[in-house]
Write the structure tokens for this entry.
Amino acid sequence: VHDIGKNIVGVVLQCNNYEVFDLGVMVPAQKILDTVKEVGADIVGLSGLITPSLDEMVNLASEMERQGFDIPLLIGGATTSRAHTAVKVSPKYHGPVVWVKDASRSVPVASALLSDEQRPQLLADVEADYESIRRRHAEKRNDRPLVSLERARADRTPVEWAGYEPPRPVVLEDGKPFVRAFEDYPIAELREYIDWQPFFNAWEMKGSFPDILNNPASGEAARKLFEEAQQMLDRIVEEGWLTANAVVGLFPANAVAHDSIEVYTDESRTAVRARLEHLRQQGAHREGVPNRSLADYVAPKETGLKDYVGGFAVTAGLGAGAKIEEFKAQHDDYSAILLESLADRLAEAFAERMHELVRRELWGYAADESLDNEGLIRERYRGIRPAPGYPACPDHTEKATLWDLLDVERATGIELTDSMAMWPGAAVSGWYFAHPQSQYFVVGRVGKDQVEEYAVRKGQTLAETERWLSPNLGYEPED
């Protein structure tokens, strides 16, 4: 998947006289290995942005082993970690496998790997580090117990439904679900909602915004980057480089047995349009800390309360690909990366703006809300918008349900790939929950009892479910 960090790595390496072959995104393993042979590459580098990328890295390492490669494999990207590399990737390949924390480390690591003098020490240090991580990982798995699914459900989030009145979306007409597309939304409005902190993080500039602009060490570079970002935003608005589309939906819904949410075709609640399947925390918590599931925040069907959920998908990346290629053709990698990082920020800003619109007008449960951008960034509002594939709902395949409910591709142009990545990459999607107690949390490790039941709920084989939930498994699946 697109990864700004990967592009920065490429530029940094090229500036240090390395020849880089960037194969793009979502490239099959065999194409990577065929290209390695064709160009005589010395190193393979992989970048991962979403969790399905992790499986692809393990797969590629296995293929490198099977096909007799011995060149170094570098691992990086937002979703990767030293622990995953040590526990999952490195054991699959006898050659050097090195996790690279950020772009600034890519040159010294590559240099050491290609140096007969430096390589032995680097590999010895890496292997000692990985062995220590693997040992701690094995111990942690045994030290941090999971409770049974039955016990976790008994310790669900304590929500008092008696006396609670779920807010009915003001836009529901005739009791039918509400779905609205927003085409070519004004970029000039979205730029006011940008959270600049992740922008500087993407450029690997340390410090909090806006203080980073006055940092004695990095302030000059940060100010220059910020100024050039503003200039490019001006051009994006004036010359129409990017198109922002969105779709939002609000639906009658109730929680049902276990951790599912039924979405109904209308307010009669007799016909089920879709089921949203959620996972529940199974970690052994201290007394008084519940084992949460997102299903806890929707009124159970047996209460008789009429509750609702929402969904959304937004993109600000339409048109970015062509403009980025135009910059690259002019050998202007800096502008290409700057545009990509701004498209990402605008997509997140669009998600923020749509959520505000939902709270204040469409669902309307916070009509009097009045927050500045800082208040929005700090989430000082009621309700949450968790995204499939992220900590509270880590199953990426739930995006397929969202795409079906909202007819996302037709409404917005955002495609869903086989690995459940959104394309264009500058896109955000998720669910809306309105309950005052709703909050973000990390599902974390889950037990086999839950995974087996979840597979049945999803209509998947156990192996399929284990593959999609691999980062969350609290046990070693059988081969």
